[in-house]
């Protein structure tokens, strides 16, 4: 069956015929689910920068311990392409909702287990090994979360507001980061001995509460009408990944390269946190609060960037934000290393909260609209997770590149800026889809 004939099956399901409450409900479900997933994911990143070198890698010198902790953070991203293939396959075979429930339980259980894991003093080298395995499970889960939530929301939305509603998946990510940081702020203020013995475990154990709320919200969400139509007519791809790589490999490659923009996020959330506190004496609460302010600002700005993308297109907003990040990385580091609290807050709010928020709000719709429904979950999952590999190892690469002295951050800024420019160039080759009907998304052209 050709792509055109498959896509035509979607025609009876005009997005505007979807009940009016379903797009809002789908956005809420995606928001809450992403909040849980990335609460769990971000508390690991924060702990990897501040806690784990002393708790799980205490048998080596401090510099090596930091690199090993950051390596464990990056290893979670190695599992994500594998998870993308597996979860993308089932998301396109049995439906978005079932897989999204599975990712919730997998992420929540892995995070809870980290909170209960004995440290290196108690069980020796088994501690970092088990920690790394649990991080791999987190990565498997995260691989399917955003792509499934994006597909779910996009396919419940009207043609005129797909970017707006789909952007709430990433707003959930911001909310998860805020929640994780707010939990870590009082914990990080504990005396050192209490922090390293039991205090760091609190954020991980609290994930059980977030998991319960997210599961209750998500389990009642119906499957998308687009997927149900394909399923009812027995047009589900038997091997979605094969169909994807056969017919959509240029789009998969494009998404991989566009996803390099995520290097900005892990650089600010993980590397800059450890760099400013260890090399420039910036207080841990100051950097953590800067992260909160940046993410709170993004919660406000991202819906407006998405509304703009529904009006003028995905590409202008995405490319403009990506290139803006490339330019602002340099003043960001100058301000963060200044030691001035107001300057640090301003840097986080402008880079993370305003400029990075543009591509962050747009990519859920921008990437998903490159694919037809029968391979959409797989396409966005595999493309983003391969691209996010670079983001996962950005803290480790940055720690290796950083030089001595007050301007040691310059190689790091150059590295991330180059990733941004490459991402923008890839986005420029994409088709503009904001005026394309959902039935026609991903159809072969020409």
UniProtKB/TrEMBL annotation:
Annotated TM spans: 41-60, 66-87, 99-117, 164-186, 198-217, 252-275, 287-308, 317-336, 342-363, 375-397, 409-428
Keywords: Cell membrane, Membrane, Transmembrane, Transmembrane helix, Transport
Membrane topology per record: Multi-pass membrane protein
Main location: membrane
PROSITE patterns attached to this UniProt entry: MFS (PS50850)
Major facilitator superfamily (MFS) profile domain segment(s): 26-435
Keyword Cell membrane (UniProt): yes
Taxonomic superkingdom: Bacteria
Compartment(s): Cell membrane
Keyword Nuclease: no
Stated name of the protein: MFS transporter
Organism of this sequence: Bradyrhizobium iriomotense
